[in-house]
Amino acid sequence: MPERSLTESADTWAACPDWVRSLLAETLAPGETPLTWFEPDLDCRLHYAPAVVVLTDRRLLSYQWPGGTRQNGRPAGEPESRHAWTLSPQLELVQRDNTGVGKLELFLAGELISTWRYTAARAAGARRLSDGLSAFQRYGKVGASPVAVRPASLECATCGARFRVGEVSCPECGASIAKSPMMSLLRLFTVARKYLWMGLLGFALTLASTASGLIPPYLTMPLMDDILVPVQGGNIVDLSMVKWYLLGLAGASVLAWGLTWAQMFVMSWVSERVSADLRIKTYTHLQQLSLEYFGGKRTGDLISRVSSDTDRICYFLSVYVLDFLTDILLIVMTAAIMLSIDWELALVTLFPLPFIAYLVFRVQDRMGHGFSLGNRAWAEITTILADTIPGIRVVKAFAQEEREIKRFKKANDRVLNTNDRVNKIWSFFNAVVVLLTDLGVLVVWLFGVYRVFHHSILVGVLTTFVAYISRFYARLDSMSRMVSATQRAAASAQRVFGILDRVPKVAEATNPVHPGRLEGRISIQNVSFRYGTRPILKNLDLAIEPGEMIGLVGQSGAGKTSLINLLCRFYDVSDGAILVDGTDIRRFPIGEYRRCVGLVLQEPFLFYGTIAENIAYGRAGASRAEIIAAARAARAHEFILRLPNGYDSLVGERGQFLSGGERQRVSIARALLIDPRILILDEATSSVDTETEREIQIALSNLIKGRTTIAIAHRLSTLQQANRIVVMERGEIVEVGPHAELLERGEAYARLYRAQLDMQSGRLADEEEDDLEAADEEDVDGAEKTS
Amino acid sequence: MAIFTLKTDARRRLILTAEDGQEYVDVAPVRAFPLSDPLHAISICDAEGRELVYLDSLDELNADQRALVEEELAQREFVPVILRIVNTPALTEPSSWRVETDRGHTTFEVESEDSVHRRAPRQVSIVDVRGIRYLIPDTRTLDLHSRRVLERFL
Ligand SMILES: Nc1ncnc2c1ncn2[C@@H]1O[C@H](COP(=O)(O)OP(=O)(O)OP(=O)(O)O)[C@@H](O)[C@H]1O
Ligand SMILES: [Mg+2]
């Protein structure tokens, strides 16, 4: 039974770090069992200081160390103070979380006897302890910890706590779990592994073409020493070799041309593919990341990572890596040839090499920093564009064009400044390389002239050396250019891998259960949810029968949309579980599960494309008849027919060409078309007029038959057909029941209902009493109609 | 002078008695501009978050009440001031920072460079993945290494 294994209790104590265990070893009485623990990280002055509180089956133990004694995540030395309280029913733990810092207070018979303070990173531990105590007092055992879908298999390197795969940082101490800063560029080659053979071919071609480039100077040596110099000196020489030398020179050029061509072709072929792979990989990964990631990211920044960063990597791979390989080969080969011809002269020639290498190394660091700044500045420009172009209406409505231009100019100036800075270092560096090259050539001339003078070498050897060395330094020069290109590409690669390394918070189950055709029975069990540290939903419990329609109402900000987000698995619950047909939704493959859920969002988003395409978004294969049927049901059919091109009308980006209500109806049609078992309408009809809303409702009333429907609405009249109404207030469910019953009760729902009636009829609040009566009467009618 | 009184109870909760004698238990002072103007615009809210009293400035309170409010604010506000950045956080995401603050040494995680903001020309604030804010009131007071690190993120 896969369902059962879900709710099996995971032993809370098992996740406890070893140092806490060894600390307890001496303190625990024989037979005393530790149940759970909590590590506060602040002292009473809110300074960082290690501490630990342990709940056993007999006592509550507390240890506090002085501030600043945390080493490697665990306290060093002896605790400053220890306390122990014997468990009794009068003992009570109260957890109070504020933004950033929380406190856990211990009361004995209503009197405060101890307080622990902690940062948000430790809030989970505080909750575990206070829940543990109350559970132990009530049931004599610590309750099952929240459903462990993924086993607590990793261990925090800092504090030793164990946690689940998929966390970004340790739930106990907040230390990073991410891999240590990696060499992003090297990782590119793991992406490129697929093209290993083509890459090797490219390398072989590079080798060959480089070698062919070295032939000409080698041929000039005998041409000069065996023929030209003797001829000039008046000696008789055999001229038959001349034509071979010249043919050799020509042949080498042709060979070099052919090889270079092939090599360029192969290398760009490979690099294009690597960067295309990287791009698709990044985008695919981006699509899999949960909403929480996008919430914290700027669109423009993401766009530039997927587009321009991958492009920069491609350029790097195709142009610079190639150049670099050629350079290295050339340098090695040249050095070898020179050494074989005359080792003394060769050594003198190679003398400045280490200096240049050192210089390259130094500049590398500075440049890299400059380039990553530059990338960021670029991303800022993209961000401004991605921000203001969709928001152009707001910009114009508030006449803020000037301000946006200023904002853009600022970002633009930043790009300019960072590039200026990089260029400054760069140009200086470049000039130094040129200077060193000239010096190197000068040294060769000096030494060579001296040697020729003493007849230890021939003139031809010297000219060959001079030819080689200028090639050699030209290569060094381009190698130093490689420095900046590498840095640029590394910065880009890092930004791309920044996306790829992100683990989706909402993770796929390891051994998923396929949902198949769901019935639609939803059971929300003790669900809590937090955005970061901010608690949004608190201990919700609700069972929804298949085919039932639930109306979800409550003040703005009550957490209605958040609950829907959990149901759709845009986020995962922080505590508790949501079961559909008895299976935890975290056990379903995300995509398959979402296909069973039709969602109409509070802010309907349409893609650029025709209306028909938008309606069929969830089911690309839908027939025209099906599209029309869905549009009819959503009362969109008629307005679509009135558009110039009917279903083929383009709606523009984000559906700009449609009115708010029209957009909503298209998105209802879109949700209906996938024939979902669970239909979720989040303020789906808030922008349509009452008349149209009524029509949609009539249509929906047929459609919601046999589907579990959850409808959020501020206009309560929308929810007349709901079997039950759920009222939420500040993240809690305060009332559940049929419309009539809730009105009868005269609490939260009745208040909301009355307030709306007042608004509609424009009556004043002091006539409330009469209204309620009127409302009651109306309601009995309404209830009869629906039943 | 504002017409209400503040006191604490046995559970050390703050209790506000309004002008009409109504008592609100567990009230909380909240700064409206904790960063840009911490001493003005302070509102006292009940446990549910509804505003009970609004103070233009802390000066509106008498010394005792002011002390109570300030103590409560200090208990609620946790913005460590970074004195030194010990490690060199990588530019990868998320990055891990080891710092020395006015409240001792700590380590935290930063989501991305977007979480490091320059608030004023020399003031920098950093928000970690847990939503805790760290402040550097004046970057000039930092040592060279810390300034270098910061510069990489700004
Ligand atoms: N991504 C987010 N990060 C942090 N807090 C959020 C986020 N989204 C919503 N909230 C907060 O969660 C609370 C509940 O929001 P939710 O969207 O669920 O409200 P709602 O009941 O749907 O309200 P409305 O009727 O206005 O749509 C709000 O206080 C909101 O500020
Ligand atoms: Mg909402």
Q: Topology of this protein?
A:
The complex is a heterodimer of chains A (787) and B (154).
Chain A: H1 2-7, H2 18-25, E1 34-38, E2 51-56, E3 59-64, E4 70-71, E5 74-75, E6 81-86, E7 91-97, E8 101-108, E9 111-119, H3 123-139, E10 152-155, E11 162-164, H4 184-191, H5 196-232, H6 240-288, H7 291-295, H8 299-341, H9 343-350, H10 353-388, H11 392-397, H12 401-453, H13 459-500, E12 522-531, E13 534-544, E14 549-554, H14 560-567, E15 575-580, E16 583-584, H15 590-594, E17 597-600, H16 611-615, H17 624-633, H18 637-642, H19 660-673, E18 678-682, H20 690-703, E19 708-712, E20 724-729, E21 732-737, H21 739-745, H22 748-761, H23 768-786
Parallel strand pairs in A: 14-19, 14-20, 17-18, 18-19
Antiparallel strand pairs in A: 1-2, 2-3, 3-6, 4-5, 7-8, 8-9, 10-11, 12-13, 12-15, 15-16, 20-21
Helix pairs in contact in A: 5-6, 5-8, 5-13, 6-8, 6-13, 8-9, 8-10, 8-13, 9-12, 10-12, 10-13, 12-13, 17-19, 21-22, 21-23, 22-23
Chain B: E1 5-8, E2 14-17, E3 23-25, E4 28-31, E5 40-45, E6 51-57, H1 63-76, E7 82-85, E8 95-101, E9 104-110, E10 116-120, E11 123-127, E12 133-136, H2 144-153
Antiparallel strand pairs in B: 1-2, 2-3, 4-5, 5-6, 7-8, 8-9, 10-11, 11-12
The structure holds adenosine-5'-triphosphate and magnesium ion.
Task: Please characterize this protein's 3D structure.
The complex is a heterodimer of chains A (787) and B (154). With 787 residues, chain A is an alpha+beta fold. Helix content of chain A is 53%, strand content 15%. Chain A starts with a helix and ends with a helix. Chain B has two domains: 4-77, no CATH class; 82-153, no CATH class. Chain B has helices at 63-76, 144-153; strands at 5-8, 14-17, 23-25, 28-31, 40-45, 51-57, 82-85, 95-101, 104-110, 116-120, 123-127, 133-136. Classes of the chains: A alpha+beta (787), B alpha+beta (154). At the A-B interface, strand 8, strand 9, helix 10 and helix 13 of A face helix 1, strand 8 and strand 9 of B. The structure holds adenosine-5'-triphosphate and magnesium ion (MG).
